[in-house]
Design brief:
CATH topology of the largest domain: Factor Xa Inhibitor
CATH superfamily of the largest domain: Pancreatic trypsin inhibitor Kunitz domain
Strand content: 15-25%
CATH architecture of the largest domain: Irregular
Largest sheet: 2 strands, antiparallel
Organism: Petromyzon marinus
Domain BPTI/Kunitz inhibitor: 36-86, 96-146, 156-206
Number of strands: 8
Radius of gyration: 22 Å
InterPro entries: Kunitz_BPTI (IPR002223), Kunitz_BPTI_sf (IPR036880), Prtase_inh_Kunz-CS (IPR020901), TFPI/VKTCI-like (IPR050098)
GO molecular function, one term: serine-type endopeptidase inhibitor activity
Strand order of the largest sheet: 1-2
Oligomer: single chain
Pfam families: Kunitz_BPTI
Amino acid sequence: MAAPLLRSAFATLATLLLARPGLGQTGAGAESRSSCMMDLDPGPCRAYLPRVFYNRYTQRCEPFHYGGCFGNGNNFESLAECNAKCAWIPVAPKACRLDMEVGVCRALLRRYFFNMTSGSCEEFGYGGCQGNLNNFKDAASCYQHCVHRAVLPRICLMKADPGECTAVIPRFHYNPKTSNCESFTYGGCGGNDNNFSSERSCMSVCGQAVIPASTSAQYLSPSRRVFVARRRQGKTFKHKIIRQ
C-alpha cells in the first residue's frame, strides 16, 4: 500500500516541478522576449507567493501573487529581475501594445498590426467593423506609428541617479542627449534602472536605438529627427548621428 502512495507522491512532485514557469524551455533570449509578452497567470494552485510580472499594457513590472504551480514564464522573483529580463521592450504608443483583433464582421480586409513580441508589423484579415486601434491600412503606416516611436527602451530615458547612499561605485548610464553610454558614480542603493555595470551592458540595451518621436523633443531640436546608429570598433563603441 505504501509503495503506490509513494509513487503517486513522486509523480505529483515531478508534475509540479515540470510546471514551473520557464522550465524545460530552450533559447534564453527568445524565451525572455516571449515571456515578457505573456498575460498574467497566477496558476491554479493556492499558495500566496509574492512575484512580479511585466504588464505589456502599462509597460511596467508590477507585483502579483503566484499560486505556486503552472502559470507561465512572465513570473519573476523580484522587480530587478523583471526589469533586467524585459529591458529590451521599447516605449510604444498604447495602440501598438494591443493584441490583434479582427472584429465581429465578416469582411476580409488586408490590414496590418504591430506585434510587440516580434517587434514588426504583420498582416492580418480585418472583418470590417469594431476591433481596436492596432489596425493600419498599410505596413508603412504601421511602421511609422509604432516602430520609429518604439525603439528606445524606457529605462534609457531615465536620468542618471546616484541613489541615496554614499558608496563610490563606477557605473554607466545611457544619456539620450548625447546618444552615448557615460560613466557616473553610484552610491550603492536606490537610484533607477538606467544603471549598468559596464559600458558594454549599457550599449547592449540602449546603444542600438532610435530616439522616439514622442520624446525626442525633450532632448533635441523639434525641427529635426535624429537617428542613432551604432558601430563597433574593437572593444569601444562609437556613434554616428544621422540627421534627416
